[in-house]
Design goal:
Elements (H helix, E strand, L loop, with lengths): L10 E4 L3 E6 L16 H8 L26 E6 L2 H12 L7 E6 L6 E5 L2 E3 L7 E3 L7 E9 L3 E8 L6 H8 L6
Antiparallel strand pairs: 1-2, 2-3, 4-9, 5-8, 6-7, 8-9
């Protein structure tokens, strides 16, 4: 079972069915090997109140509808009821909920708008990393330059798929890793 921990959270919205949490960079969303405490789920349990079980009968991901990478900050939907979890999960899968991402990338893109359409999978040489792999799952990201700085571009990223580390891997694959 996941332990409740008193970790401060910034709640942007709350009602009987959902929470919207402003997840800070550096926080893992749910417990996993190497990160059994200090996660968003630990903090949610410490905060009290109901959390959905979703598809997680074993526990550890209560309330979690979608995730953000550990080093990514941003708003995260949390379901308080199983019904909210079902509805939000279906809406995400149907792409009715738009997720917007901003990234600062080293260097300058060749154009103000650029699409990267490269399949992603676990790196065959390092199973802990994701990489562009020809036999991977399809992944497409559209990038729009919002600002150009001396050594980096501020980009908006639109994901047509939701693969693990998709923005990070796609930018690295075109020679512009995330700052």
């Amino acid at each position: 079972p996941v332990l409740a921990e008193q970790i401060p959270l910034v709640v942007q919205y709350e009602d009987d069915d959902v929470l919207v949490i402003d997840k800070p960079a550096g926080m893992v969303v749910h417990p996993a090997p190497g990160n059994w405490s200090g996660t968003l789920v630990n903090a949610l349990k410490g905060r009290g109140g109901p959390l959905s079980q979703g598809n997680d009968a074993a526990g550890g991901r209560e309330g979690i509808v979608h995730r953000l990478d550990k080093e990514t900050s941003g708003l995260l939907l949390v379901a308080r009821t199983d019904r909210a979890h079902q509805v939000l999960g279906a809406e995400l899968q149907a792409r009715h909920i738009r997720r917007r991402y901003a990234a600062l990338a080293w260097g300058h893109l060749s154009a103000d708008q650029l699409s990267v359409d490269k399949p992603l999978a676990r790196d065959p040489r390092d199973r802990k990393r994701m990489a562009v792999v020809n036999t991977g799952r399809p992944a497409r990201t559209d990038f729009t330059r919002l600002a150009r700085f001396d050594s980096a571009d501020l980009l908006r990223a639109h994901l047509h798929s939701g693969r693990t580390h998709q923005i990070r891997v796609h930018l690295a694959a075109i020679g512009h890793p995330v700052v």
